[in-house]
Design brief:
This protein has 466 residues and is α+β, with helices and mostly antiparallel strands. It is built from 13 helices and 14 strands. The chain starts with a strand and ends with a strand.
Length: 466
């Protein structure tokens, strides 16, 4: 940073043309010229680094300055200032150090006022103080908006990844079942023709239909894989004793058809027709089973899409409205279920019946639940447990997210709500999650507290009812 020696008249003209300070009284402009230094900062130089103390205020007359914040392992430009702006540390600002590196993008000229001059500035320059306070408030609003946007993108990325993983299983199952169903329908047509050629009487056909109806029932034995294999072997042996292709054993073993029923069927129909009858029954069993598999897979996909739509409050009003907290918690657990399954973590929901709704923005509250439950999933070891509860409280509704992870270290606990503070590895956390949670809850007149010890970490949210 190089100090420039310019005539006082030229410096005064620069301030008179400045968008923020041009209307200040002459006395305050004189004070700035007397207590400030006009400097030139080369492109690429840092005014300050992350977590380093800002040296003072810069009244920019030329150039461009940006703040680069690391989010998700990547440095992003979250805010920039140009000629006519005021940046750096401002009077009354509680920000001791910036959340990122403040870098000059191009060569920049500015009137620099050291922070040591601020007490005198506040006393001698009331109108300038008013200007910088408004600048500070605008800057704070911008950071809040930017942080919330970035955290929403992070949450959306996690949601998309989890949803893709969760949808993949039922989608793949539906595709497999549909492909097998095409072959099964051909086999069912062949079996139907063979059955028609058998020329069975009315009583014989009634016995056949009775056995076939067992396809609609669940299997009698749903035990271990060994027990199911034994059942299939028993049916296969029965078919071989009666001179029938044992290929039909597998589909019959998945139904409630019992060996005594097969004995009755063998006694009721001619031996020459038994093979065709069992082929028709087996084909029908397979077709129905595959259709049920497709229905279950489609239902699962429908439930997931419905949960995501409810979670994000798509097509809903943007004004406060009564919000069902329990439904939001249930949807959040659903959209995070893929991550829970991946770690073999149990996530249980305990909710009081007929819980009163709260008034607010459902999508924002769901973002709160998502951040808290997602953090708990990160904290617990594989096979861990998370309990989410919603109960009545004298002041409204209290939601608790409790995990049995290792706990939050005592030296970390006081800082967990600070913006950009994270204990996660680079690229795995923005340090904004709990800060955003706190901001969103304040918007709902709610509060959050935390207690932690090894084996028990509890985040408790109190929300007024509607």
């Amino acid at each position: 940073m190089q100090e420039l020696e310019l005539p006082r008249s030229e410096l005064l003209a620069l301030l008179r043309g400045h968008a923020q300070v041009s209307r200040l009284p002459d006395a305050e402009l004189d004070w700035l010229l007397a207590h400030g230094r006009y400097v030139r900062i080369p492109a690429g130089e840092a005014l300050s680094y992350r977590h380093a103390q800002l040296p003072g205020m810069y009244i920019m007359t030329k150039g461009q300055v940006a703040i680069l914040v690391e989010r998700g392992g990547v440095k992003r430009r979250v805010m920039e200032w140009n000629a006519g702006d005021v940046t750096g540390h401002l009077p009354f600002s509680r920000m001791v150090s910036p959340p990122g590196d403040t870098i000059t993008i191009v060569e920049t000229d500015a009137l620099f006022v050291s922070r040591e001059e601020f007490p005198a500035l506040i006393r001698e320059c009331p109108e300038l103080t008013s200007v910088v306070v408004h600048v500070m408030l605008d800057r704070a609003r911008h950071f809040v908006s930017s942080d919330l946007h970035d955290e929403k993108l992070v949450s959306l990325g996690k949601l998309a990844a989890g949803l893709a993983h969760e949808l993949n299983n039922p989608a793949a199952a539906a595709v497999r079942a549909a492909e097998q169903l095409l072959h099964s329908l051909i086999a069912a047509d062949d079996a139907a023709r063979a059955l028609g050629a058998a020329g069975l009487s009315g009583p014989e056909m009634a016995a056949v239909l009775q056995v076939r109806e067992a396809c609609l029932l669940k299997p009698e034995q749903t035990g271990t894989p060994i027990e199911r294999a034994d059942r299939e072997d028993a049916i296969s042996d029965w078919l071989e004793r009666h001179g029938i292709d044992p290929e039909a054993a597998a589909p019959l073993a998945e139904t409630a058809v019992a060996l005594p029923a097969l004995d009755l069927l063998a006694a009721a129909v001619p031996a020459r027709a038994l093979d065709g009858v069992l082929g028709w029954i087996a084909a029908g069993c397979t077709t129905r089973s595959l259709a049920m598999d497709i229905e279950r897979a489609a239902s699962r996909m429908h439930e997931l899409v419905k949960a995501v739509k409810s979670f994000t409050y798509m097509d809903r009003s943007t004004v406060p409205e009564p919000v069902d907290v329990v439904a939001g918690l249930r949807d959040t657990i659903t959209v995070l279920s893929a991550k829970a399954k991946q770690k073999a973590v149990s996530v249980r929901l305990q909710a009081a019946p007929d819980l009163e709704p709260v008034r607010g923005f459902g999508g924002e509250l769901n973002q709160v639940w998502s951040n808290l439950i997602d953090n708990a999933l990160d904290a617990v070891a594989p096979g861990g447990e998370i309990v989410v509860s919603a109960q009545r409280d004298p002041a409204g509704v209290v939601v608790r997210v409790v995990d049995n992870g290792p706990g939050i270290p005592p030296d970390v606990l006081p800082r967990i709500f600070e913006p950009f503070y994270t204990t996660k590895p680079v690229g795995q956390g923005t340090g904004l999650g709990l800060d955003i949670v706190q901001r969103l809850l304040r918007k709902h007149a709610a509060d959050i507290t935390v207690e932690s010890r090894p084996g028990h970490t509890e985040f408790r949210v109190n929300i007024p009812v509607a």
